[in-house]
Write a structure and sequence with these properties.
Order of helices and strands of chain A: EHEHHEEHHEHEHHEHHHH
Number of strands of chain A: 7
Distance between the termini of chain A: 17 Å
Largest interface: A-B, 35 and 35 residues
Largest sheet of chain A: 7 strands, mixed
Helix content of chain A: 40-55%
Bound molecules: adenosine-5'-triphosphate, magnesium ion
Strand content of chain A: 5-15%
Strand order of the largest sheet of chain A: 3-4-2-5-1-6-7
Oligomer: homodimer
Structural class of chain A: alpha/beta
């Protein structure tokens, strides 16, 4: 059974999509069959791996609200071993439509169960909110990765997110674990960055990944070509960072 | 009557809060009476001007849902001429509670009308979503500033936001104008940054501010001291950038 990992943080712009795309691509390059699920109506994961959201006729919205089988929606990407469950702007509607459905928090859990044994990993990119779609992702997930930008505001929201995860663990998904806190956009020359890293490591030392993702222009450039950074520039700090993250997760889960 | 300006973009981390705090502070330094409204449950504007959201007993939530008069909630900040209508995490609840209220899109419009004549400017910081609270802010506003990070993903969401603004102009708020598109976190050394600036100026030339906000560490540091950047380092590129933005807006509105 494949491991389902949600990438979540309600703080905006902390590197959720960048982590989802490049972790999924790194796992695929290591030949683990991986599915990337785009659970954000902005559909940045969809475009970041080369598909125009405007050309996606059916996506995650139809799976959640119209019970379309994910198999009919999933597309393979140019990266071997990497598939995508795409989204488009219609997904915004799901936030309201799910409200009236029985078992509304468990819809994504149900649909991912039908395909979980076809993948080694399923990576879910969440939107910057803790609404019903993100709640669905956290209920369906075995674990969650929390990207934290090395900036002041990013620290503020961490407590709230950890509270939400506790609530979900207590009421919706007892097996949800924290895969780890991932420090992103690190720039060692900045005092603030080093201060945030120190604060996070002091408060959360046992759940912080050893691997820190550095600020790297190649990570910002890759989505404009619609490819993961490992195909844009495999020698870049960004590529190496996310490959190291993949290896750290595999080691932690006893897979290498 | 004070001018109400919403700062909105559903893309996360593009500089909405940084723009709201530092534009409001710049207008206050120029001695325009200014109110900063924190319409994001993350309450980053509240903490960014020095107030701990956990210590805010009543905030915007109570004004929207319990009809508490804003006058009883507004606090003055250490910056002369700058007041704050604070928030805390309770605001998350308003998104659902407003759904069942008659006239649910016009609640904020009603409450800001009661205090609009006490200020020259009211600046509303929105969350990274286009839900009911942001819809309220766009319905209450005279104009909207759209911060756009000089990054690839930031361009993608612009079309969707402009569509949403058109819908609000047609159905909820005929007088809503676009004050301008503000390019943020600009770094002239990066090819991608220059490409995004060129793309935005080509597609939206008549609504893009002349002023571009550069990436500047002082802007990231200031919130950790709970003060606007102009009080943290008045000579910094960040301070000068937002002061120039304030002057550009004042000129455009025939106020200087
Ligand atoms: N390590 C990095 N170095 C440089 N740029 C980065 C890095 N990580 C992310 N970025 C860039 O920063 C911006 C924000 O990242 P991203 O979109 O992944 O964040 P997000 O959390 O998914 O945002 P949202 O909250 O809108 O979903 C993007 O333009 C991305 O390309
Ligand atoms: N010009 C800039 N230079 C350097 N850092 C900046 C600049 N503008 C914003 N930042 C930093 O980038 C991060 C994101 O900015 P900010 O929080 O203002 O974005 P936002 O759009 O309000 O995010 P959210 O979508 O979560 O509300 C913050 O840590 C902020 O301090
Ligand atoms: Mg994202
Ligand atoms: Mg903000």
């Amino acid at each position: 059974m494949g491991k389902i990992i949600a990438i979540a943080n309600q703080k905006g712009g902390v590197g959720k999509t960048t982590t989802a795309i490049n972790l999924a691509a790194s796992l695929a390059v290591l030949e683990y069959k991986t599915l990337l699920v785009d659970a954000d109506p902005q559909a940045n994961s969809t475009s970041g791996v080369g598909f125009n959201p405007k050309n996606i006729r059916i996506g995650l919205y139809e799976c959640l609200v119209q019970e379309i089988h994910p198999q009919d929606v999933i597309i393979s990407t140019p990266t071997p071993f990497l598939d995508l469950l795409p989204s488009n702007i219609d997904l915004v509607g799901a936030e309201i439509e799910l409200l009236n459905m029985p078992n509304r928090e468990r819809i994504m859990q149900g649909l991912l169960k039908t395909i979980q044994n076809q993948y080694d990993f399923i990576i879910i990119d969440c939107s910057p909110s803790l609404g019903l779609i993100t709640t669905n992702a956290l209920t369906a997930a075995n674990s969650v990765i929390i990207p934290v930008q090395c900036e002041y505001f990013a620290l503020e929201g961490l407590g709230k997110l950890l509270n939400t995860i506790k609530i979900i663990q207590n009421h919706l998904n007892k097996q949800l674990e924290i895969e780890g806190i991932l420090l992103t956009m690190y720039d060692g020359r900045l005092r603030l960055c080093n201060q945030v890293v120190e604060d996070v490591k002091t408060h959360f030392q046992d759940i912080v990944f050893d691997c820190i993702i550095q600020r790297n222009t190649k990570l910002g450039e890759a989505p404009s070509y619609g490819i993961p950074v490992i195909h844009h520039d495999a020698e870049s700090k960004g590529s190496i960072g996310y490959l190291n993250l993949a290896k750290e997760i595999l080691q932690k889960n006893g897979m290498i």
